[in-house]
Design brief:
The protein is an alpha+beta fold. Helix content is about 25%, strand content about 35%.
């Protein structure tokens, strides 16, 4: 009887492990590799909606404004189309497209309850 329950127990255990357990960071495969993720990220949301909509949210101890600026530069250097930020609000986000991404936005989200910075990724992938 216990042998039959073992696979179920193992599946439940795997589902409850954090996404970054064992220093393996699980990020959606559409996110450009040029975006270097902080080593301490916690995945808050990881969703695929239909065949083209993607939502991904992380938290980190790193300063989100500095992280956005590094990512903005990395995306531009890699040849992605990155919209120029013209206002204070637009500097809190990156809008870009290219390499299988029809359009995407990375934005600073409200901090988490424990004070960590949060960033939200929303994208529509190219068909």
């Amino acid at each position: 009887m216990f042998a039959k329950l073992l696979p179920v127990a193992a599946a439940v255990l795997l589902l409850t492990l954090p996404a970054h357990a064992g220093n393996e960071i699980e990020v959606q495969d559409w996110i450009p590799e040029v975006l270097e993720m902080p080593g301490d990220i916690e995945v808050v949301t990881d969703r695929a909606i239909g065949s083209s909509i993607r939502v991904f949210r992380i938290s980190t101890e790193e300063d989100s404004t500095e992280l956005l600026e590094r990512w903005r530069t990395a995306l531009q250097d890699e040849g992605f189309n990155v919209e120029a930020s013209t206002s204070e609000m637009e500097s809190q986000q990156i809008q870009f497209s290219g390499s299988g991404i029809e359009n995407a936005t990375i934005s600073i989200a409200p901090d988490t309850a424990d004070g960590r910075s949060a960033l939200s990724f929303d994208a529509t992938l190219s068909p």
